[in-house]
Design brief:
- The chain is α+β, with helices and mostly antiparallel strands and 288 residues long.
- The protein has three domains: 79 residues, lambda repressor-like DNA-binding domains (434 Repressor (Amino-terminal Domain), Orthogonal Bundle); 32 residues; 155 residues, Orthogonal Bundle (Arc Repressor Mutant, subunit A).
- 48% of the residues lie in helices and 14% in strands.
- It has twelve helices and seven strands.
């Protein structure tokens, strides 16, 4: 195994982990000049350092030596896929990876999807590096946060319509209607209620009012708007004391994402573990 091959692997692992040569040197208790020499192929780590590097990057020593393609680190595997691509190819490949994740999940046996421990929810852990990160260029925007309050990933590309729908009055009216509806403390209480697994997916307005503290008249108005917006369904139940509406909601991940994004924008940390932003202007236009 040549020093050059080891150097390429070490540089790739460090870049994928999102750390500097100084970070690696401090973690291993050696000079950053030594790290630099390893990554430019001037010298190679000895056996003791290979083991330490493997533990630090969470890979096998065979991977460090280029003897195995079994890379345990997901960031490294992604880096291998994206490395060397021209910028436009890179952005398209990211889109392909995102779709690949969805289709892979769909391809699993139904019995395996959503399987969790009976007492433990599958909450992603906060990473040691870049728990809040953002990439923003003219063709692509990506934001990821793993915190106690929000676990969220947002990916957005330019589109063929160039966001022209933002100027369409009928679409503006629909967006304003939804945002206006959500801009209410009582509505946010109801959003918590319908997304909470502690409560039944079938409920009456009385039941929802009791568990949210929202007045019954206000609750009926909110639930009727939810129905009009397609956020829940309703049916009529014929009871001894008369008829009543039974509402049903399985939650709405997209709606909860909108609320989570608003929370993160207004209440989240202002610091980033990793941030790269050259532009946030995803809408194109005539070049000046």
């Amino acid at each position: 195994m040549t020093n050059i091959k080891i150097a390429e692997i070490l540089a790739q692992l460090r870049t994928s982990k999102g750390v500097t040569q100084d970070d690696v040197s401090k973690a291993l208790g050696i000079s950053n000049k030594t790290i630099s020499k390893w990554e430019n192929g001037t010298s190679s780590p000895d056996l003791t350092m290979l083991v330490a590097l493997a533990e630090y990057y969470n890979v096998s020593t065979d991977t460090l030596l280029g003897l195995s393609d079994d890379i345990k680190s997901i960031p490294v595997a992604i880096s291998n896929t994206l490395s060397g691509l021209e910028r436009n190819e890179l952005i398209l490949k990211i889109s392909e990876i995102i779709y690949g994740i969805f289709f892979t999940a769909i391809g699993h046996p139904a019995s395996e999807i959503g399987k969790t421990n009976a007492t433990t929810s599958p909450i992603p852990p906060k990473p040691d590096v870049a728990p809040r990160s953002s990439i923003s260029v003219e063709e692509f925007y990506g934001f990821v946060v793993n915190s106690d309050n929000v676990n969220l990933s947002v990916m957005q590309w330019q589109n063929q319509a160039d966001f022209a729908w933002l100027l369409a009055p009928e679409i503006q009216a629909k967006i304003v209607e939804l945002l206006h509806f959500l801009a209410d403390a009582d509505v946010l209480k109801v959003m918590y209620f319908i997304h909470n697994t502690s409560y039944s997916k079938h409920f009456t307005a009385d039941y929802a009012a009791k568990h949210t503290g929202v007045g019954i008249d206000r609750m009926v108005a909110i639930l009727e708007t939810c129905y009009d917006l397609g956020l829940c369904t309703k049916s009529t139940a014929h009871l001894k004391d008369g008829e009543t509406f039974i509402y049903e909601s399985f939650g709405d991940g997209l709606l909860l994402s909108i609320i989570s994004i608003a929370y993160e924008k207004l209440c989240g940390s202002n610091s980033y573990g990793y941030y790269y932003g050259s532009s946030g202007k995803l809408i194109g236009g005539a070049k000046q």
